[in-house]
Design goal:
Radius of gyration: 48 Å
Largest sheet: 5 strands, mixed
Strand order of the largest sheet: 4-5-8-7-6
Oligomer: single chain
Shape: elongated
Number of helices: 4
Helix content: 40-55%
Number of strands: 8
């Protein structure tokens, strides 16, 4: 049994009456058996603490390893997907380039045949476009509650696309031919030097349209239409514009 003591005046120890709570208590004297048991418990507690710490560190290491493995696996999977997508994209690029080349070749053949059919020379270099007719017309439009008139021109431009092309195909190709992005317009050869996206009445009311722009011969995209001429066998673009055409080159006149 433990004894609660204080140091004696001349050496040795003297038991205090208040036990552990006695303010004069300075030492605790244990029997050897209890001391050994206490020491064993402390050692066991310290060992358990070390074991718990070790297991915690091991678990943390496993978690870190698992997380690192998952990240590496995800990165590898993503890299593989990117590589696969890049491979597919490259295949698509090659296929697209092949199709563009094929389509370009087919269009070239179609144009040469159409030019030969219409006796347009030189058949390989001719644009394939000819002016069928150009006519001045009186155009009526509303200005508020009033009706007004303007003199506009309507031109029929025949393409080299046969009526065997679909409407969508013909429309797309004619747009690309006449108004190539970043290049001189083919339609400029007959004097069209401007283009407005809407109708005539919209253009003259559009405050963003400058006076200088209005001096051009302007094609009104909102008043153009596609026509399949089954007599000639070719698609034609019928469009309104603000001024008479310039001198139409002889090779662009229908024969």
């Amino acid at each position: 049994m433990a004894k609660y003591v204080k140091e004696g005046t001349f050496g040795g120890y003297k038991e205090v009456p208040g036990g552990l709570s006695d303010p004069e208590c300075s030492h605790v004297i244990l029997p050897l058996k209890e001391y050994n048991e206490l020491h064993r418990r402390i050692a066991a507690a310290e060992q358990e603490s070390r074991n718990t710490k070790y297991e915690a560190e091991k678990r943390m290491q496993r978690l870190e390893n698992d997380a690192r493995y998952k990240v590496q696996a995800a990165e590898a999977s993503a890299a593989q997907k990117v590589a696969d997508m890049e491979g597919e994209l490259e295949d698509e690029r090659r296929e697209s380039a092949y199709q563009r080349g094929l389509n370009k070749n087919l269009l070239r053949i179609a144009k040469e045949r159409a030019n030969a059919d219409r006796k347009l020379k030189p058949k390989k270099e001719h644009t394939g476009y000819v002016v069928v007719a150009s006519e001045e017309k009186e155009y009526r439009y509303r200005d508020g509650k009033k009706w007004k008139k303007a003199k506009l021109w309507e031109t029929v431009l025949q393409s080299y696309y046969s009526v065997d092309f679909t409407e969508e195909e013909a429309r797309t190709q004619i747009e690309r031919d006449l108004f190539p992005k970043g290049e001189a317009w083919l339609i400029a050869e007959i004097g069209i030097s401007g283009r407005y996206g809407g109708r005539y009445e919209g253009m003259i009311e559009d405050t963003s349209v400058s006076e200088d722009f209005l001096k051009h011969n302007i094609l009104l995209a909102g008043q153009q239409r596609l026509r399949a001429n089954f007599r000639s066998g070719y698609w034609e673009l019928v469009f309104m514009h603000t001024k008479a055409l310039g001198i139409v080159p002889p090779d662009m006149r229908v024969r």
